[in-house]
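I'm stuck. Please check this protein.
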Amino acid sequence: MDARTILVVDDDIVSLSAMLDILRDDGFRATGAATLEAALRLQAVFLFDLLIVDLRLGRANGLDLVARARREQSVLPAIVLSGSVDVTAEMESRLLGADYLVKPVAPAVLLALVRLRLNRARSTTHPEPI
């Protein structure tokens, strides 16, 4: 498996660490940020294959990061995580082309969605020859 790069953004250090461990144990290159500002600095330097972002990042909104990433890298798959069901946030996430999951997320579910989104993005950017 080629190691795809994933940026995980969550201000809860325990959740961030757990997600990074899950992704790395499955062979992904995963980088973490605990603030919107740190995530923006990383995105300015590195090209990521997928973004996983918590909806609430202190006073910041994770959807702002998804929207900015969409403007800069239109095919970047994104997964938005939230600690509660929020229909408005879910709708906004989906309008940005992001999946929306409520925490806690089972590791197998997270990994399945990550693989699905990466595979779809790969087939969109590198279609199979006929």
Observations:
- The chain has a mean pLDDT of 90.
- The two ends are 23 Å apart (CA to CA).
- The beta strands are 5-9, 29-33, 50-54, 56-57, 60-61, 78-82, 99-102.
